[in-house]
Amino acid sequence: MDLKKIEKGMELIIEGLGKNIDRKKLKETPKRVSRMYSEIFSGIEIDPKKILGKIFKEEYNELVLIKDISFFSMCEHHFLPFFGKAHVAYLPDGNNVIGISKIARLVDVLSKRPQLQERITNQIVDIIMNVLTPQGAMAVIEAEHMCMIMRGIQKPGTKIVTSAMRGIFLRDLRTRAEALSLISSSIKM
Ligand SMILES: [Zn+2]
To answer: Is 147 a catalytic residue?
Structure first.
Protein backbone atom coordinates (compact mmCIF):
# COMPACT_ATOMS: atom_id res chain seq x y z
CA MET A 1 0.00 0.00 0.00
CA ASP A 2 1.30 3.45 -0.95
CA LEU A 3 0.64 5.59 2.12
CA LYS A 4 2.27 8.65 0.57
CA LYS A 5 -0.24 8.57 -2.28
CA ILE A 6 -3.16 8.27 0.12
CA GLU A 7 -1.77 11.21 2.05
CA LYS A 8 -1.48 13.27 -1.15
CA GLY A 9 -5.04 12.34 -2.07
CA MET A 10 -6.32 13.52 1.28
CA GLU A 11 -4.41 16.78 0.87
CA LEU A 12 -6.21 17.31 -2.46
CA ILE A 13 -9.60 16.60 -0.88
CA ILE A 14 -8.94 19.21 1.80
CA GLU A 15 -7.75 21.64 -0.87
CA GLY A 16 -10.86 20.90 -2.92
CA LEU A 17 -13.12 21.78 -0.01
CA GLY A 18 -12.21 25.41 -0.59
CA LYS A 19 -10.74 28.37 1.20
CA ASN A 20 -13.23 28.64 4.02
CA ILE A 21 -11.81 25.88 6.14
CA ASP A 22 -9.04 26.30 8.67
CA ARG A 23 -6.20 24.41 6.95
CA LYS A 24 -3.89 24.76 9.94
CA LYS A 25 -6.14 22.58 12.07
CA LEU A 26 -6.10 19.91 9.36
CA LYS A 27 -2.34 19.86 8.94
CA GLU A 28 -1.84 16.39 10.39
CA THR A 29 -5.05 14.94 8.96
CA PRO A 30 -3.70 13.52 5.66
CA LYS A 31 -1.06 11.54 7.54
CA ARG A 32 -3.61 10.34 10.09
CA VAL A 33 -6.06 9.28 7.37
CA SER A 34 -3.40 7.36 5.45
CA ARG A 35 -2.42 5.44 8.59
CA MET A 36 -6.08 4.74 9.29
CA TYR A 37 -6.65 3.48 5.74
CA SER A 38 -3.74 1.08 6.06
CA GLU A 39 -5.60 -0.40 9.03
CA ILE A 40 -9.17 -0.47 7.69
CA PHE A 41 -8.02 -1.75 4.29
CA SER A 42 -5.50 -4.23 5.67
CA GLY A 43 -7.48 -7.14 4.19
CA ILE A 44 -6.39 -6.16 0.65
CA GLU A 45 -2.97 -7.67 1.16
CA ILE A 46 -4.16 -10.94 2.66
CA ASP A 47 -5.25 -13.95 0.62
CA PRO A 48 -8.61 -14.94 2.15
CA LYS A 49 -8.25 -18.53 0.94
CA LYS A 50 -5.25 -18.99 3.21
CA ILE A 51 -7.14 -17.79 6.30
CA LEU A 52 -9.01 -21.00 6.98
CA GLY A 53 -5.69 -22.72 7.52
CA LYS A 54 -5.51 -26.06 9.21
CA ILE A 55 -8.37 -28.48 8.70
CA PHE A 56 -9.05 -30.83 11.59
CA LYS A 57 -10.07 -34.43 11.07
CA GLU A 58 -13.18 -34.91 13.14
CA GLU A 59 -16.17 -37.14 12.64
CA TYR A 60 -18.92 -34.59 12.80
CA ASN A 61 -21.66 -34.01 10.29
CA GLU A 62 -24.04 -31.74 12.11
CA LEU A 63 -24.55 -28.05 11.66
CA VAL A 64 -21.81 -25.62 12.72
CA LEU A 65 -23.04 -22.05 13.11
CA ILE A 66 -20.92 -19.07 14.05
CA LYS A 67 -23.31 -16.31 14.96
CA ASP A 68 -23.08 -12.54 15.52
CA ILE A 69 -19.63 -11.96 14.04
CA SER A 70 -19.39 -8.19 14.11
CA PHE A 71 -17.59 -6.53 11.22
CA PHE A 72 -16.79 -3.12 9.76
CA SER A 73 -16.29 -2.54 6.07
CA MET A 74 -16.13 0.30 3.55
CA CYS A 75 -18.64 0.57 0.74
CA GLU A 76 -16.76 0.73 -2.54
CA HIS A 77 -19.29 3.15 -4.06
CA HIS A 78 -18.95 5.93 -1.49
CA PHE A 79 -15.97 5.02 0.72
CA LEU A 80 -18.25 5.24 3.73
CA PRO A 81 -18.50 2.52 6.38
CA PHE A 82 -21.06 -0.20 6.55
CA PHE A 83 -21.13 -2.47 9.54
CA GLY A 84 -23.15 -5.11 11.29
CA LYS A 85 -23.18 -8.80 11.97
CA ALA A 86 -22.37 -11.86 9.93
CA HIS A 87 -23.76 -15.32 10.65
CA VAL A 88 -21.97 -18.18 8.99
CA ALA A 89 -22.99 -21.83 8.93
CA TYR A 90 -21.62 -24.94 7.34
CA LEU A 91 -22.41 -28.61 7.38
CA PRO A 92 -19.16 -30.62 7.44
CA ASP A 93 -18.61 -33.53 5.07
CA GLY A 94 -18.27 -35.82 8.07
CA ASN A 95 -14.48 -35.69 8.36
CA ASN A 96 -13.28 -32.11 8.15
CA VAL A 97 -13.88 -29.16 10.43
CA ILE A 98 -12.02 -25.88 10.90
CA GLY A 99 -11.16 -23.82 13.94
CA ILE A 100 -14.18 -21.58 14.50
CA SER A 101 -12.10 -18.47 15.08
CA LYS A 102 -10.89 -18.87 11.48
CA ILE A 103 -14.39 -18.11 10.18
CA ALA A 104 -14.46 -14.85 12.14
CA ARG A 105 -11.03 -14.03 10.79
CA LEU A 106 -12.23 -14.74 7.23
CA VAL A 107 -15.10 -12.25 7.69
CA ASP A 108 -12.58 -9.74 9.00
CA VAL A 109 -10.17 -10.06 6.08
CA LEU A 110 -12.98 -9.85 3.50
CA SER A 111 -14.43 -6.77 5.23
CA LYS A 112 -11.21 -4.82 5.43
CA ARG A 113 -11.19 -3.75 1.78
CA PRO A 114 -13.44 -1.68 -0.47
CA GLN A 115 -16.49 -3.92 -0.59
CA LEU A 116 -20.14 -4.57 -1.32
CA GLN A 117 -22.25 -6.42 1.23
CA GLU A 118 -23.54 -8.77 -1.48
CA ARG A 119 -20.00 -9.67 -2.50
CA ILE A 120 -18.73 -10.37 1.04
CA THR A 121 -21.71 -12.68 1.56
CA ASN A 122 -20.91 -14.67 -1.58
CA GLN A 123 -17.17 -14.72 -0.96
CA ILE A 124 -17.56 -16.17 2.53
CA VAL A 125 -19.52 -19.21 1.34
CA ASP A 126 -17.48 -19.71 -1.83
CA ILE A 127 -14.20 -19.78 0.08
CA ILE A 128 -15.57 -22.19 2.70
CA MET A 129 -16.93 -24.48 -0.05
CA ASN A 130 -13.60 -24.30 -1.84
CA VAL A 131 -11.22 -24.91 1.03
CA LEU A 132 -13.24 -27.20 3.29
CA THR A 133 -15.52 -28.96 0.76
CA PRO A 134 -18.38 -29.31 3.24
CA GLN A 135 -21.88 -30.55 2.35
CA GLY A 136 -22.95 -26.94 2.29
CA ALA A 137 -22.27 -23.42 3.50
CA MET A 138 -24.45 -20.46 4.25
CA ALA A 139 -23.91 -16.83 5.24
CA VAL A 140 -26.39 -14.18 6.36
CA ILE A 141 -25.22 -10.62 6.83
CA GLU A 142 -27.21 -7.79 8.37
CA ALA A 143 -25.67 -4.35 8.09
CA GLU A 144 -26.26 -0.63 8.25
CA HIS A 145 -24.73 1.54 5.55
CA MET A 146 -23.55 5.05 6.38
CA CYS A 147 -24.18 6.02 2.74
CA MET A 148 -27.90 5.41 3.41
CA ILE A 149 -27.83 7.14 6.78
CA MET A 150 -25.84 10.36 6.47
CA ARG A 151 -26.49 11.08 2.78
CA GLY A 152 -28.84 10.06 -0.03
CA ILE A 153 -32.14 8.81 1.31
CA GLN A 154 -31.03 9.28 4.96
CA LYS A 155 -32.79 6.40 6.61
CA PRO A 156 -31.12 5.59 9.94
CA GLY A 157 -32.00 2.19 11.33
CA THR A 158 -32.52 0.58 7.93
CA LYS A 159 -30.84 -2.79 7.81
CA ILE A 160 -29.76 -4.55 4.66
CA VAL A 161 -29.89 -8.32 4.94
CA THR A 162 -28.13 -10.51 2.39
CA SER A 163 -27.80 -14.25 2.31
CA ALA A 164 -25.90 -16.80 0.26
CA MET A 165 -26.34 -20.58 0.28
CA ARG A 166 -24.42 -23.37 -1.32
CA GLY A 167 -24.72 -27.14 -1.43
CA ILE A 168 -27.16 -28.79 0.94
CA PHE A 169 -28.57 -25.44 2.09
CA LEU A 170 -29.92 -24.93 -1.41
CA ARG A 171 -31.30 -28.45 -1.78
CA ASP A 172 -32.56 -29.39 1.65
CA LEU A 173 -35.22 -27.13 3.10
CA ARG A 174 -35.03 -28.68 6.55
CA THR A 175 -31.29 -28.01 6.90
CA ARG A 176 -31.78 -24.48 5.68
CA ALA A 177 -34.68 -23.90 8.09
CA GLU A 178 -32.65 -25.24 11.01
CA ALA A 179 -29.80 -22.83 10.30
CA LEU A 180 -32.13 -19.89 9.69
CA SER A 181 -34.08 -20.44 12.88
CA LEU A 182 -30.85 -20.58 14.90
CA ILE A 183 -29.70 -17.37 13.23
CA SER A 184 -33.00 -15.50 13.29
CA SER A 185 -33.17 -15.30 17.07
CA SER A 186 -30.47 -12.65 16.74
CA ILE A 187 -31.83 -10.78 13.74
CA LYS A 188 -33.96 -7.89 14.90
CA MET A 189 -35.90 -6.65 11.92
ZN1 LIG B 1 -22.43 3.20 -0.48
So the answer is: yes
pLDDT tens digits, 150-167: 988 888 889 999 999 999
Per-residue confidence band for 189, with pLDDT thresholds at 50, 70 and 90: very low
Structural domains in the chain plus CATH codes: 3-40 (no CATH), 52-184 (3.30.1130.10)
Q: Is 78 a catalytic residue?
A: yes
| Single pTM value for the model | 0.93
In this prediction, residues 1-15 reach a mean pLDDT of 97
How far apart are the C-alpha atoms of 78 and 175, rounded to whole Å?
Answer: 37
Query: Which residues are found with C-beta within 5 Å of the ion, ligand 1?
Result: 75, 77-78, 147
